[in-house]
Amino acid sequence: MAPPAPITALQGVSVTFGGRPLFDGLDLSIVRGERACLVGRNGSGKSTLMKVLAGMIQPDGGTVFVQPGARIAYLPQEPDFTGCATVHDYVVQGLPADEIDESHRVDAVLDKLQVDGSLDPNTLSGGESRRAALARTLVGNPDVMLLDEPTNHLDLPTIEWLEEELLSYRGGLLLISHDRAFLNRLARRTLWLDRGAIRSTDRPFAEFEAWQAEVFETEEAAAHKLDRKIESEMKWLREGISARRTRNMGRVRNLLDLRGERAEQIKGGQQAKLAIAEAERGGRLVIEATGISKGFDTPDGRKTIVRNFSTRILRGDRVGLIGPNGAGKSTLLKMLTGQLQPDEGTVKLGTNLDAAYFDQRREGLNPEDTIRRVLCPFGGDAVVVNGQSRHVAGYMKDFLFDTRQLDSPVKALSGGERNRLLLARLFAKPSNLMILDEPTNDLDMDTLDLLEDVLGDYQGTLLLVSHDRDFLDRLVTATIALEGDGTATEYAGGYSDYLVQRPARAPAAPAPAKPKPAAAPAAAAKPRGKLSYKDQRELDELPARMDRLGTEIAKLETALADPDLFTRDAARFQKTSEQLHARQAELAAAEERWLELEALREELEGGRA
């Protein structure tokens, strides 16, 4: 059967930016019914490529094909409201010229996304602007949708609603997003923009890191001692993948243990107070909130943000705050950290707290400063981290910088590099309480990986407001959910645990396009028990299997390190490379299975609420 004809395609496309080729001779096609994601390092040209597909940028070479009559809708990261007096005027522009009189469709989509069409678009919040831009993209029923970071500034109910809309969409879809949970659910094909070329696989995004590692290993083996430039530019990424895999098993095991402890604290009630009272004097207690409430007067009356909420946060806890936009997450965060007084109740803060706050939109960098000066503002080459002096060149490598960038000015850095520099500066400051209010907005995936790694090793207490479900699942020991009606409830675990434990409730607006089954209440969770004989045996055998695979991989890598192997015996080189890739894939699968079984064991034995 012949493959389906593309709705839009690029053939031999080249784009030059700032005198250097961003990509050259690039081919890409999108067919009906396709759901693909476009991934790549920050600055690799993902957004530029989307704009070429959308017809907003003309390529320097090659051709852009669009089926006659096909409609392509593009969602930019920053919507342009120029010339629009109201949100309705802006969204109407998403209708085809021959359907402009069907403005009732505009009202319908704005109602679904809960945006007031009469508002001045220039007065909208970040979340409202994103919903208005989505409405304009969806209203015209396009044949292809190109969505650049569609979940930025959206709350979780809206993200889940958007997922349902896109799952039922029949046209071609291309996504750029840092939201892994979003891509895991939607993307069935992965396009990787890497060093000016597109790599494509029909594997879903969930398998991207394994595929990426395979590509790097193949390149490294085939180009051994012949392509030092690739090794220099990509070394940090390969090392990052390897390091994450190495640390992941221990980190996940530790996270499960911490969640188990937190579950006991939440269930223990007043008994927990007596058990740790003595330790509190030594700084064990970080925050204790008792019966706190807060409300504000609005034109429609008094709005209760939080009602009668209590919690105890201890040293080392990692607490996530979730809820719809406007539910009061930032308000609760300010009350818990003493920045805002509650109307009722009390908040007690622990002794000797040294807080650090991260929000890349509020932290400034002098564009003329160099990386060296940002990290060593008082001169010299030493950075003090966790009480230890480190050379600035070594420290910056932890944050994915090349040492050749040490004296580069901030103004020469990409957006992702600036965010990594902010992280490096933040974590060089001593702290025992880290407060992050929606840190994942506008961060590229590389920086998110880095932030997750650093926070995973952080020994202090973490308070995190985020709409990124995957980020929460990987980091937090407890989740405080604000439902938008004054209710705030604490659950052990991350976002996925919250979904299992929460009582059944009416869905928060905007309502999903299709009704979803209510989440099971906490009482319906699986009873305590243990793994089946088969699963327990597999769990017991996996560590030895992983050790064996690691030994085999090391031997194969040693064989491929022979610089003359390819010239001496090309067939053996190829066979060894294939064996290496197969063993690496087996090891990755074994690690994932170990994590899955270990998490299941913890849950069945009552380690998680």
UniProtKB/TrEMBL annotation:
One example GO MF annotation: ATP binding
SMART domains: AAA
Cross-referenced HAMAP family: Uup (MF_00848)
InterPro entries to which the protein is assigned, alphabetical: AAA+_ATPase (IPR003593), ABC_tran_C (IPR032524), ABC_transporter-like_ATP-bd (IPR003439), ABC_transporter-like_CS (IPR017871), ABCF_ATPase (IPR051309), P-loop_NTPase (IPR027417), Uup (IPR043686), Val-tRNA_synth_C_sf (IPR037118)
Keyword entries, A-Z: ATP-binding, Cytoplasm, DNA damage, DNA repair, DNA-binding, Hydrolase, Nucleotide-binding, Repeat
Bias kind Low complexity: ranges: 516-526
Segments forming domain ABC transporter: 8-220, 287-511
Protein name per its UniProtKB record: ATP-binding protein Uup
Pfam families: ABC_tran (PF00005), ABC_tran_CTD (PF16326)
Organism of derivation: Azospirillum picis
Location relative to the cell: Cytoplasm
Function: Probably plays a role in ribosome assembly or function. May be involved in resolution of branched DNA intermediates that result from template switching in postreplication gaps. Binds DNA and has ATPase activity.
Membership in a protein family: Belongs to the ABC transporter superfamily. ABCF family. Uup subfamily.
Primary location class: cytoplasm
CDD domains recorded: ABCF_EF-3
